[in-house]
Amino acid sequence: RAFDVPVEARIRQDRSIAGGILAEAKAGSHDIVVIGRREPSPLSLFGIDEITRQVLSESEQPVLFVPGRED
Q: Does residue 71 surpass a pLDDT of 50?
């Protein structure tokens, strides 16, 4: 199902993936951070990978999880 929502993608270099996401979210005038869910490691807490966990815990904006496609 498609929604008429404007989307803007950015490419940013940072020392870590989560750090880059958080830096862009803070620097831009973004209303929400959208993260695609990937398969976590068997040792992850609550089935959330480390990158997502860090973004969820440190983001000043709301974070939306988008599940991956089932093949």
A: no
